[in-house]
Each structure stands twice: as C-alpha cells, then as structure tokens.
C-alpha cells in the first residue's frame, strides 16, 4: 500500500527486547510495502507521561481551579499546547494507521504510553462533544494494539486465571481508541515470549510479519460489547 502513513507508538526500555523485534519487523515489512513509517519510541524520547499545567503554554482560562481537560481543550483551540504534545498530534494526524507496541502491564499499557494517551488524545483533537465513538475526530484512521504478555495463552481464556484476554482490551480498544473514532483492527497478542522457546518466539515474529503483508485488507472488529464479552 504505497503512500500509506503509519505511526508506531512504542513503549519498551530495552532495544534488544522481543517488543523491539516486533516493532522492527513492522517497520521493515510496512516500509517494503511503500508505507512511510514513523516511530515514537517513548522511552528513548524521554516522553513526559504526567498531565500537568506545563502542558498549557498560554494563560489558563481558570487559574484559580485547574481542570486539565478543560484547559487542554482550550489550549488546543488556541494553539497553546506544549510542543511535545503538538509534535505527537501531528504524527497522529498524518497517519492512516497507528500501531501501539507494548508489554502488558497490569492488564493495561505501561505508564509512559498511558501518559501519551492522556496528553496527546485531548478534547478538540481526538474527540469532542458530541463527536466521539463512531463520530470521533480520528474516525478516518485505523488503530491496532500489538502486545506481549507475561502469562501463557491458557491464562487468558474464560476458564483461565486472568479471564479472556478480550476483557482487558475493552478500556483500551473501546474506551480509548474507539471513543476517539479509530477503526480498530484485531489485536496482535504474543503470549509469554519470555517463557517460550526460541522456535516459539520465531513463530510469533513470523506470524506478525505474515499478518502485516495483508494488514490493509483486514476489516476492523465490531468494537461493541459482544466482541469483548460474548465470544
């Protein structure tokens, strides 16, 4: 799909990690297809995860009682958000597809990636009222979660200790990505690479590489409760 633009938001501390391998494979395969690929390596960038007053460079609309959501909405409209937020928003705005590559932390994303979502996907940029879910401001874009787990696949089933893996995807895929309008592709879950054999890890990487070859032909999931809770 020559001409397509992809943003990979990547969160792992170790350049030699399995997550890094999956990120590198995505860059290589998508570049081969003629896509323009940008990587936001959050740890390498030293990305600030905390949502604070510093994110607004201009005057506050209500300095007596700080409300982050209200102030960033106003700052977005006035063009007074901090430069790191603006830079990431530009990457998202230009992308046809955003891939989030990360290890699962406590059934969610690492803090640095959560901070990216908190700060970058602000009102006015990613959503507004009533422009959310199917009417979200990023509705022309695709999103995909590619993640690794610490537990083996059997732990993430309805009968497993952690419950079906779709359960923990609800707040990420539906409450964040779908809320902002993204059309969400099925997740790529690599189960327990740390405890897998070399052959099993190679198979996971090969599976991801193979999927990427036809990724643009995939249909988004039905990002509604039945996909998560009635499978």
Into which percentage range does the β-strand content fall? Answer: 5-15%
Pick out the low-confidence regions. none
| Mean pLDDT value | 97
Characterize the largest beta sheet: strand count, sense, and whether it forms a barrel. Answer: 6 strands, parallel
Number of DSSP E strands: 6
CATH superfamily: Flavodoxin domain
Rg value: 18 Å
| CATH architecture heading | 3-Layer(aba) Sandwich
Count the DSSP helices.
Answer: 8
* Amino-to-carboxy terminus distance: 32 Å
Order of helices and strands: EHEHHHEHEHEEHH
Overall tally of domains: 1
Query: What name is given to the CATH topology?
Result: Rossmann fold
The computed structural class is alpha/beta
CATH class: Alpha Beta
What is the share of helical residues? 25-40%
Q: What does the oligomeric state look like here? A: single chain
Q: Which of globular, elongated, flat, extended, rod-shaped describes the shape?
A: globular
Keywords: Cytoplasm, FAD, Flavoprotein, Metal-binding, Oxidoreductase, Phosphoprotein, Zinc
InterPro entries: Flavodoxin_fold, Flavoprotein-like_sf, NAD(P)H_dehydrogenase_qn
Family: Belongs to the NAD(P)H dehydrogenase (quinone) family.
Protein name: Ribosyldihydronicotinamide dehydrogenase [quinone]
